[in-house]
Amino acid sequence: MIHIAMVEDDTELADVLTQYLSKFNICVTNYEDPFIALSAIALKEFDLIILDLTLPGLDGLEVCKELVTKYDIPIIISSARSDIADKVIALELGADDYLPKPYDPRELEVRIKTILRRFNKQMPKALDEVKEIFTLDEERQEIKKNGKFIKFTPAEFQIMSLMCKRKGFVVSRYDILDSCDFLNSDEDSGSIAVIINRIRHKIEEDSKKPEYFITIRGVGYKLVE
């Protein structure tokens, strides 16, 4: 099993990433406080560190500097800070990758795998064996379930495409309206709920008891696997 230390004060994001990565035999221990994180990393063995830059009490770049100075552990910066200077400084300090938020958890998993292979870490076999149920190919405008192509209308595709990109995260109705420009032109769409119901008929065993495209009451929707 791969052991990762995450330094992230966004607990919702940390929970989503922890649950997602666990499917790939990756155990994540999250620390909201950077000082506690530094103490824990000094005492325990980790294969990789995922580090946010905006942290309470201590800037993430300072944490990165201390980690690089003391340990030979690969670091992925996971940050919402868009300033190119932060990215340059982090990489110059010795971080191995910089992943701007928001991102697809799948991308994080691939980057972890790539970096650990570069560091000659032994990757668990399960990491390559786990397959996603839903796959999105934006170039071909295709979405497949367990390798089988599903035909969607333009509005259905845009919504399902958004959900695939935000897999594991809650997507609000506002996010859907803002991202999907085919909604108004889709025939007999009526509402987002109607389109989502059509999607469920195509991807669920029982559309009335969805396992994958679930409703988070009062908040929005989530695609889970």
UniProtKB/TrEMBL annotation:
GO terms for cellular component: cytosol; protein-DNA complex. GO terms for molecular function: phosphorelay response regulator activity; transcription cis-regulatory region binding. Pfam families: Response_reg (PF00072), Trans_reg_C (PF00486). Residues 125-225 form the OmpR/PhoB-type domain. Residues 3-116 form the Response regulatory domain. GO terms for biological process: regulation of DNA-templated transcription. InterPro entries: CheY-like_superfamily, OmpR/PhoB-type_DNA-bd, Sig_transdc_resp-reg_C-effctor, Sig_transdc_resp-reg_receiver, WalR-like, WH-like_DNA-bd_sf. Keywords: DNA-binding, Phosphoprotein, Transcription, Transcription regulation, Two-component regulatory system. The modification 4-aspartylphosphate is found at D52. Residues 125-225 bind DNA. PANTHER family: REGULATOR OF RPOS. This is Two component transcriptional regulator. It comes from Sulfurimonas gotlandica (strain DSM 19862 / JCM 16533 / GD1). The lineage of its organism: Bacteria, Pseudomonadati, Campylobacterota, Epsilonproteobacteria, Campylobacterales.
